[in-house]
Amino acid sequence: MRRARPADVPAIGAFLAAHADVAMFALSNLASDGLAVEGGVNPPRSMFAWIAGDPVSAFIAITAEGMLLPVLPERASEHWRAVAPDLAGRRAFGLTGAADTARAGFDVLGLGRAGSVLNRDEPHFALDLAALEVPPGHERFTVVRPGEAERPVMEAWRAAYHLEVLGTAPAQAEAVARRDTDRALALDTTRLILRDGVPVSQAGINAAAEGIVQIGGVYTPPELRGQGLARHAVAALLAEKRTAGVARAVLFAASAAAARSYVAIGFRRIGEYRLALFDPPVEIGR
């Protein structure tokens, strides 16, 4: 493994695109924020990256804010060991990637000793949008592109999502939700569905690249669950993206109920995906 340079960006992009189902965060970050520079002022999602092969066949990155993003189709432990000295001393707040690749990283870097608010393998799904199945009764809902008028409900739902799904500390949830909502509104990544004029569910996109999106932040208030509302929210968002030319979507499910919703609109399981968030953040190698 060697440190990636700006001249490597096209080759990195081609490699990540070829493995997009498990590389959406890295692919999206590369497009939006690029490679980070040592000693510079870097956007939080920019990446310090290491690569192997010619053409690129392995990729490990850590964002400027501390998220580890590996894409290692083979020999994962070997590549983690190769880059471990360069990662030593860096601050990490999480790791996400294909489950087997993430487990190898945990073992090599000794991250199993780190405390975490979230550390689990989730079922991983993909859908070619030509096969999207809009659920029956979809015409009963109004799809809304949210603006400032919808900010209060978006912030409340996002804070609840952080508490319930991501394990965010209650003292931090509201502030993080405000930042997430700022980003969602600025990038136009979220859709709400309304029933009788009242918001009942939402779906968002947490990573995007040419022709493919990754769904995230799906939320239905507890009192409205069990009615299939999440599948309508996700289907509405993806139907819009399909019209805009997006061909594929991926996601990972936080619960069995969520998984059933996604299967109902055409998603098929492709593996397992690990999401780990450390609390407190760890210094790698310590």
Walk me through the structure:
The protein has 286 residues and is α+β, with helices and mostly antiparallel strands. It folds into two domains: 2-121 and 274-283; 133-265, 3-Layer(aba) Sandwich (Aminopeptidase), CATH 3.40.630.30. It is 36% helix and 31% strand. The protein has eight helices and twelve strands. It has a twelve-stranded mixed β-sheet with strand order 1-2-3-4-5-12-6-11-10-9-8-7, with helices on both faces. Helix 3 links the parallel strand 4 (67-71) and strand 5. Helix 1 runs antiparallel to helix 2.
Adjacency order of strands in the biggest sheet: 1-2-3-4-5-12-6-11-10-9-8-7
Order of helices and strands: EHHEEEHEHEEHHEEEHEHE
CATH H-level homologous superfamily name of the largest domain:
Gcn5-related N-acetyltransferase (GNAT)
Query: DSSP strand (E) fraction?
Result: 25-35%
Roughly how many Å is the radius of gyration? 19 Å
The assigned structural class equals: alpha+beta
Percent helix range: 25-40%
CATH fold group of the largest domain = Aminopeptidase
Q: Report on the biggest sheet.
A: 12 strands, mixed
The top-level CATH class of the largest domain is: Alpha Beta
**What does the overall shape look like?**
globular
Provide mean pLDDT, rounded.
95
Q: End-to-end distance, in Å?
A: 22 Å
Tell me the total number of β-strands: 12
Q: Helix count? A: 8
Give me the CATH architecture of the largest domain, please: 3-Layer(aba) Sandwich
Counted up, domains total 2
Low-pLDDT segments:
none
